[in-house]
UniProtKB/TrEMBL annotation:
Pfam family, one: His_Phos_1
SMART domains linked: PGAM
Protein name: 2,3-bisphosphoglycerate-dependent phosphoglycerate mutase
Entry EC no(s): 5.4.2.11
Keywords associated with the record: Isomerase
Keyword Isomerase tagged: yes
Keyword Isomerase recorded: yes
């Protein structure tokens, strides 16, 4: 049976700065909390049967209002975390990340390559789909720095590049239909063409 993985890119969050909150504890901004509440109707219409999230606070805060409305707990999973680029907050982060997208096997010492992220993303999506066969799972995730959501869309066969990522709304909702052994069979969401069959 097919499972819908509803990737929810987090709402507007506090910008990373040197000495600011770390990646795990960086929260949503006040307007991001409002955006998360405003997503509830859209997310409930997708009839989720479970809610999973990156353990990063901003991702959890984005799916929490919908989880509460559904009477479901938010289960955090380490494998849903954002890409560990090994780069400290810097205003020119995009230059570094574009380079990593163009050279996916390269990684900073002790950090994760984009190729490593791709393997983690694919395994995490397959595991979630297998655990919730035939249901719909809200997945609180990320978009800008490490591009978990974008790499998930690539794994689902969507045509995603760096300009797509830069234009990705915050928050954004993407639905990846995962069909057992075949993997992703359709994907839809902002900035994408109609469902890929």
């Amino acid at each position: 049976m097919a499972t819908d993985l509803v990737l929810v890119r987090h709402a507007t969050s506090v910008v990373p700065t040197p000495g600011g909150p770390d990646e795990m504890t960086r929260p949503l901004r006040p307007e991001g909390l409002v955006q998360a509440r405003d997503l509830v109707g859209e997310l409930l219409a997708l009839a989720p049967t479970a809610v999973a999230s990156s353990p990063y606070l901003r991702a959890v805060q984005t799916v929490e209002p919908a989880a509460r409305a559904l009477g479901l707990a938010v289960g955090t999973r380490w494998e849903l975390r954002e890409w560990d680029s090994g780069l400290a907050p810097t205003p020119d982060y995009a230059r570094h990340h574009v380079h990593r997208w163009e050279h996916p096997d390269e990684a900073r010492p002790g950090a994760e390559s984009i190729a490593d992220l791709d393997r983690r993303v694919g395994a995490a999506l397959a595991r979630l789909a297998g655990e919730h066969d035939g249901g719909a799972v809200l997945v609180g995730t990320h978009g800008t720095h490490g591009t978990f959501a974008a790499r998930a869309l690539l794994a689902a066969g969507a045509e995603v590049d760096w300009p797509f990522l830069v234009a990705m709304p915050m928050p954004a909702v993407y639905v990846v239909r995962w069909d057992g052994g075949r993997g992703a069979t359709a994907v839809r969401g902002p900035g994408l063409p109609l469902d890929r069959a």
